[in-house]
Amino acid sequence: MDDGVVLRADVFRPEAEGRYPVILSHGPYAKGLPYQVGYRDQWHALLRDFPEVARGSTCRYQNWEVVDPEKWVPEGYVCVRVDSRGAGRSPGLLDIFSPRETRDFAACIEWAAAQPWSSGKVGLNGISYYAINQWLVAGLQPPHLAAMCAWEGAADYYRDWHRHGGILCTFTGSWFRAQVETVQHGVGARGPVNPHTGELVAGPETLPEHTLAQNRVDPLREALLRELDGPWYRERSADWSRVTVPFLSAGNWGGQGLHLRGNVEAFVRAASPQKWLEIHGHAHWTHFSTDYGLALQKRFFDHFLKGLDNGWDREPRVLLNIRHVDGFVLRKEQEWPLARTRWTTLYLDPARGRLVPEPPGAQSWAEYAPLQEGVAFRTPPFDVETEITGPLAAKLFVASATSDADLFLVIRLLDPSGAEVTFTGAVEPRAPIAQGWLRASHRKLDPYLSTPYRPYHTHDEIQPLVPGHVYEVQVEIWPTCIVVPPGYSLELLVQGRDFQREVPSGDLGPWSGLRGSGPFLHDHPWDRRPEVYDGQVRVYGGGDTDSYLLLPVIPGEA
Questions:
Q1: Which whole number is the average pLDDT over 375-388?
Q2: How far apart, in whole angstroms, are the C-alpha atoms of residue 378 and residue 369?
Q3: Which residues contact 419 (CB under 8 A, 6 or more apart)?
Q4: What is the pTM of this model?
Q5: DSSP letter at 416?
Q6: pLDDT one-digit tens code per residue, 242-294
Q7: 541 bridge partner residues
Q8: Fewer Cβ atoms within 10 Å of its own Cβ: the N or the C terminal residue of the chain?
Q9: Whether residue 204 has a cis bond before it, omega within 30° of 0
Q10: How far apart are CA 179 and CA 28, in angstroms?
């Protein structure tokens, strides 16, 4: 790097001499840590449900969230994996998604492009971390970056990840300790060993714990210190005006909390004239590695890195796996949100706990204690099959007994008996169909970026509540897709804490301990101190306080 730090990489090349396009990834999960060693439960679940993943590969070099070289190199690609600064075999200060790390990433792209085995065209591919940092490095516009596939990755360090609706998400802390600190450079002999090389995955030397602590920046602590959006978040977020490279953005309907919003925002807002959006279901680690996902990725990169006229450039820009209660149906579309969407307003009737198509005449309210159960509003059973696909939003009139209130909104699907129908989420075995969050003191909207179906909050000032006073707030609910069968209902749950069920019993493998919201919880004791956020909350409807839920209903074929 330009400051003398040496980053370590693994390079997988075709045996035949020549110049080949490059698939590159750059991140902290340790290039020498095999999937089966570092993420055993997820690996076993993947092979159990999709044995095709292991066909045609020894899986020796299959790692978490990056491509399997044995499925790419034989088709004429070079695969390069770089341990980012401070992680795995690369020394230095570990500061995730920092400007320094992003500059390193750009330098790696240009290094790969200049190698004698490279065609000069570099593509980026990977899941989550390896997708998030693609948006950042694209903003630097390295000359030889030719195409990107960002699979289930956030893009706004504030809104997509650290502070949903202004509320601190503690996932960052648990994730960082489990997946990053364990392979920090210098863990050495206390960490895993690469079974194929015998090398220590996290560096050749073993440093004391206090030295490791000095060599890393704690992202949760940094986010805790910054309730409002600002430079620290912005320099770790996508600048859509500068993302001009061709890309395929792949999200997950079950990715509430991390693995959906950024993928959709990228497609809607990035400056690139050549961009495609795909959204699927199943677990976070599934379709990136299945035949379905590989086929998409290879068609995309074959076109942009090899120059093949394979029809990719003529594909519709949106590919959706439409979610039904019993599976998915693939459908191609031209835009997002869908142009034919029938935006449908359902009003809250607190007196009856209902969602109704017309505003209730008289005002009523429902009340809940934020750290206990919330209040629910349910539609009548649907008369006909109804597709709901797209972004959602709610306008609520609320009052709090304290100076603030955290609002957690959950959309659930109920069968004719009233039982909830759940779905496999990205990292949650029994996910509801949509969620949204807002800290009421962060209710200020950006008038230029907000739309009726996607309110965009500035998060640049705190506007405390006067206890007992009624306020109008608009809540962004992350996109969803569900075809509601006749006789089924929808429920809007409004509460003051994370959506959690009773802990299920039994060995759940990679799902252990998850209760409805996956690991994306908002339970930091200071950020959620009771004297501010545990006052009784009233939700109003009717009269001059017409609270409502906005749904994207897709008309059926005539």
A1: 98
A2: 20
A3: none
A4: 0.97
A5: T
A6: 999 999 999 999 999 999 999 999 999 999 999 999 999 999 999 999 999 99
A7: 364
A8: C
A9: no
A10: 8
